[in-house]
Predict the structure.
Amino acid sequence: MGTGAVTSYIDVAQITLYVFWIFFAGLVWYLRREDRREGYPLESDPSGRAKDEGFLFIPEPKTFHLPHGGTYSAPSGHRDTRPIKAERAAAWPGAPLVPTGNPMVDGVGPASWAERADEPDMTFENHVKIRPMRSDKALYLASEDPDPRGMEVVGADGDVAGKIRDIWVDHAEMIIRYYEVRLAGKQRDRDRLLPSNCVVIKNGKVHVNSILGEQFVDVPRTASPDQVTLREEDKIMGYYAGGRLYATPYRAEPLA
């Protein structure tokens, strides 16, 4: 037998190779199991039944300590049981959903939103992260930038929805996150948030291409006049995103 041989058929190099294969297979299995702490088990598209259950695929719950107090366990075992206000266009898996109501309000397709915590995002100093400028007198706009407060908000159809009342600032990043719109007319609870990335300021007006002027009234409201929760942010962003497809019937049709 040669140097390093265990038997005439197996040597140290071959054993090392087998050990590496076993280790690598175990590593892949461990990593694939760990990445299923969120979003699993998967659900069958036609039936809605859960798949990939069991200890081989789903890891044991791990408890995480949150930075501002409390804990969170993942996987939590919680499944989203909200009714989908849409019908399948066909019975095969992956068939598109056809909305049965107002998809922008019902959270269908691009207007969908996640059930995040119904509490505001916080800074490392444990302060509310996103707040209107009126709550912090130290904030101001640079003189080189336009001040949109008081400007009219124009929807994709050219109709005026209202005027900018205030600016909501992310105090961790020090950037504008939302504009607060005071709707025109006599509606109660007339203030709505408008994401800054949906806005183009031009010719002294705030232009929004995502939704029509009349659709601002259905933008999800915040429970507090000076705070927005993580869940409310998802709903608001989903509403404007849904408008890119559902604001008009024409947008949901093929281009040609």
